[in-house]
Amino acid sequence: MDDQTRIMHALGGVGLGVQGGVQGGMQGVQVAMHGHEGADGDARKQDIGDILHQIMAITDQSLDEAQAKKHGLNCHRMKPALFSVLCEIKEKTGLSIRGAQEEDPPDPQLMRLDNMLLAEGVSGPEKGGGSAAAAAAAAAAAGGASDNSIEHSDYRAKLSQIRQIYHTELEKYEQACNEFTTHVMNLLREQSRTRPISPKEIERMVGIIHRKFSSIQMQLKQSTCEAVMILRSRFLDARRKRRNFSKQATEILNEYFYSHLSNPYPSEEAKEELAKKCSITVSQGVGSTITVSQVSNWFGNKRIRYKKNIGKFQEEANLYAAKTAVTAAHAAAVQNSQASSPSTPNSGFQMKDEEFQLDSAESKNSLLTNMFTGGYPTACYQSDSRIQ
User: What does the similarity note say (predicted)?
Assistant: First the structure.
């Protein structure tokens, strides 16, 4: 019995009953627990108290003390017997929970987030995914407007920034998860030298850790998806709702812009007048109206595009200048003809506006040439109102 007590104290309070050696592990424990009475029973109670006291004092031990205890346990001659007993206990208690831990199916919400991030070009390898998604959405939204490149580049820059933040945070998450998983695996492998731990149990513990960390991953992906949706609503969805002006409305706005090129900032009254003219033109086409805010936005975008590429728009400016000159000359000619016509009804001659209308076969260039070279026919009457 003295040998049994000495073994129990050396193992840190783990009592093993020894009767003619260790026989069958659990059988020895039962003999030790139930084979003696009297003073031996009091000694067992004292041993259990010592065991509980040592267990409660583990957290107060220093690292050196813990290492010394572990080394003493590993070198003890009764360690194989202890390990055998623990294996039998685990075999009996583990039958009820065997197979209870099944592999969980993948989270459908996490799969939806992954699919969205992949479709938007945020996750996965960057092989033009984000740019391609932005280009496809922009092409479908605006249909080749001249300011597409500016808005498209802004969209790609914002999407690239979101992608960079996402991958940085995902890398931090994966690093923290891997570090914690490695620490737990090393701890379990170290404990497997004293108590039975199978590789499958280690894998199960790793799965539990990953499920705990998946909530952080889901929060990160959900925040990234929300940022992408906000970006789409600002740069793409708004452009889908926007309708381009009709050709006639664009002509009206361009005429005003190039006729006031020195100061292309229309007043509020001018904007309202232009909006009315454009609304009349558009209502004849698709039945929609143009607001003053849309006119202001058009002039703002037009000024930006004109400043960025003056050479490209110079030709357009010349065309509208020539058109304005033709219109002004035509109006002046009509006004002069009406002012020079005789006031008496029996004068025998009256000028009509139709005589100054541009014939469909006559070009604008020929009209300009006639006006500035004197080739256009003048009124055929003298100051005394007698017909020549």
Answer: Belongs to the TALE/PBX homeobox family.
Each of the 388 residues of the chain gets a pLDDT tens digit; together they read 444 444 444 444 433 333 333 344 444 444 444 554 555 666 666 777 887 887 787 778 788 887 787 777 778 888 788 878 888 888 777 655 555 555 667 778 888 888 888 888 888 765 444 444 445 444 444 444 445 566 678 888 888 999 999 999 999 999 999 999 999 999 888 888 878 888 888 888 898 998 888 888 889 999 999 988 888 887 766 555 556 677 888 888 888 888 888 888 888 888 888 888 887 655 444 445 677 888 888 888 888 888 877 777 777 777 777 777 667 666 666 676 666 655 544 444 444 444 444 444 445 455 444 544 444 444 444 444 443 3
CA-closest candidate to residue 279, choices 251, 245, 255, 242: 245
Q: Which helix (H) or strand (E) holds 206?
A: helix 199-232
If you search the block for the tokens 């506006």, which residue do you land on? Answer: 353
DSSP per residue over 306-354, as a string?
A: HHHTHHHHHHHHHHHHHHHHHHHHHHHHHHHHHHHS-SSGGGS----GG
| CATH label of the domain that carries residue 295 | 1.10.10.60
Question: 93, 121, 137 — which closes off a domain?
Answer: 93
Structural domain including 24 reads: 2-93
Q: Does residue 48 lie in a domain region? A: yes
Provide the 10 A C-beta neighbour count for residue 47.
18
Same domain, 168 and 222: yes
For residues 256, 258, 264, 270, the Cα torsion angle rounded to the nearest 10 degrees is -10
Residues 141 and 158 in one domain: yes
Q: pTM for the whole thing? A: 0.43
For 27, the enclosing helix (H) or strand (E) is helix 26-34
Do 141 and 201 share a domain, yes or no? yes
